[in-house]
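Class, carefully examine what follows:
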Amino acid sequence: MPGENLSRDEARERAALLSVDGYEVSLDLRSAVGDQDTGQATEGAPRTFRSVTTIRFRSAEPGATSFADLIAPSVTALSLNGKDLDPGEVFDGTRILLEDLAADNELVVDAQCAYSRTGEGMHRFVDPEDGEVYLYTQYEPADSRRVFANFEQPDLKAPFRFEVRAPEGWTVWSNGVGELTDGVWQFAETKPISTYITAFAAGPYHYVTDSYSRTFADGTTLEIPLGAMCRKGLAPYFDSDDVFLVTKQGLDFFHEHFDYPYPFGKYDQAFVPEYNLGAMENPGLVTFREEFIFRGKVTQASYEGRANVILHEMAHMWFGDLVTMEWWDDLWLKESFADFMGAFSLVGATRFKDGWITFANRRKAWAYRADQLPSTHPITADIRDLQDAKLNFDGITYAKGASVLKQLVAYVGQDAFLEGARRYFKRNAYGNTRLGDLLSVLEETSGRDLATWARAWLQTAGVNSLTPQVILSAEGRITELAVLQEAAESHPELRPHRVAVGLYRRTPSGAVERYARAEVDVEGPRTIVAELVGAEAPELVLVNDDDLTYCKIRFDEGSLATLRERLGEITDPLARALCWSALWNLTRDALMPARDFIGLVLRFAGRESDIGVLQMLHAWADSALTFYAAPDWRTEGERLLAEGALKELRLAEPGSQHQLTWARFFARVASGAADLQLLGGLLEGTAKIDGLEVDQELRWAFLEPLAAHGIADESRLAAELARDDTASGKRHQVRCLAARPSAAVKAQAWAAVVESDALSNALVEATIAGFDQPSRRELLAPYAAKYFDAIERVWADRSIQIAMDVVKGLFPSLQDSQETLDATDAWLAAHESAAPALRRLVLEARDDLARALRGQACDVAAAG
């Protein structure tokens, strides 16, 4: 893997030397079928396909030396400017040496490239249900070089012309419109785009079409062919009408606000198997993980989540595809904007009007965690190489960046922000940009100097805490209200925050509602909120009401006491979500005992109306018990959570989203004999809860705890797979098999993931998820030492995606002791020269472990 890396310095040097006029790529994918197999990779020679690439490019310095990128098992032939080159002399497996360049050059590369089983490059999937083969590509940040030779960096854009030979009966899709002529799929030339957003999908996909039309003010009409596809086995569940509805709503919204017509012709959306990401913004062929096609009953939160991702990827057509960052330092120029625009358009264009609640509660939780890790970084990051880039698709780049953009909109005004975006697109279309290019147009449209704002928000790391300070008169009115701002010692920047401060109190009906609000610019350690002086005494002061800024909310003592007694009576769902998020941050920061947070969930979660918030509360409660609760209280905590979940499950409206959500949570926390017996009865039909339909997905959710507690054995899981003999069923079965409480099972799972590369990426993920069960921590104890012995070898030998999955997923976090912390520190001390990206992952896991130990100490202290 180190030989596959590319440094920023190398990329800058190559971009200064070369400019690319165009690519012609010919792939022969007929080798994808034939040779009966089960879809499992085998140790040994990979299955390959032929890839022939012609690159026409110019050199600013004739006679100079550079290189092209290609990761392939072999190269059959190479020529540069008509001269044949010896592949053995100029190709080292990752790069092609290019010497004595002319002013105008033509490179031709005939290679054998490998199909992937890791979700990187040209991924090949065999459907166990019907034996059909499906292909798709995933490249970001730098895996197109696994499919064709190129200059793999975002600022060497070029038009691409593709052709593909495929097995008979297949359809092939790419970025442009394709036609089948004499057995060859030929695709329209693309606009100038970066290598990492070129794409293919090929196979017997189920494909549905629609169209979009819009007439602009000047009388011109834009017609966009729409398509959506999935595996044939998922076709019965594919609600393409809803996908197309959101797609059209998004296109209308972005056309209205961006004033730049969608520039890439057609708009296909492919839902593909074993996908490593949520989705990818390839222009004309957006790819999504197929889990967005729901095989069973799901809540509205799942549909909202899918719509958000569809809109996020659509925003990339402008932020990222039309205008692209120069290097991965400015990844935020696409990901932060797409994350913000996903929520912005979700609320503005679709039926999901509570999208900002989900953003405040779920997306920002991701950002807060990432921003407190030792690996936190400014939104405009220092990306030294491709491994750094791979790891920076994180909560900072996405969710914090989006939160900061929301703050920027409040700071400069929505109209100025959108006008700046419009000018940015028109000035930089099909080009590459840096931070200054965007700030300059926003300064034009807003009239504000954004240099200071950018330094504070984009070029420093860390999250501030905002706490209200209230002084009351004897008559019970506010004589002074201040907002105190704090920062961690490691990242001491105090930022300018545009915030709303809300005052809440009980109404005669008992509801807790806002009765006063003021917006203020918080600067420095203490800011007075003069507008609220004289207001009646509040029971709750909510800093960052309406979620305008990015900060951790703290409470004064009176407000915290109100939340402990009346959190469920807060009527505004966004305010309630912000309070829940703040309480979770207090728990993670060891300022609130885990048992207290769990108690609040048990007391008030049953009254939560927003289903997405409820699902987040369940996840947080589970994490609080698993990581932050005192070890000797865990059994009691398990009992309380299971009792509470079952109570709410029985109280929920039959057939409702809340009933389904509580059923899934009950399965997650069930541990006692009676709970497990009930799950078994629901599976077998001998027990019933009115309105609860136990569909196939819910069956697997019930089976996992039964497997983890030794009740569902291998034969029972095999029988369920026979009932659901699909790719989804196989993933569920693999996870459940690895969950069984047996030393032999754990050894087998460890070997399958760490010692072998036979499993696909999806089955690696499923095996790790099943292996890591908190109910039997003692079975995992022997693997703490094995983990530290293995990870450097795994990092060197496996693809970066699989290596990341192993290093993150198998860290011994459930061996939560000082001994494990010391072992982590010992590894870090002994491996200072290890790959920086590997060290980052271990440092992050170490920080999570240390945080868990602090939380446990807080919980122990609370018990007295």
Observations:
- Residues 38-43 have pLDDT under 50 and may be disordered.
- The two ends are 51 Å apart (CA to CA).
- The longest strand covers residues 48-59.
- Residues 836-863 form the longest helix (28 residues).
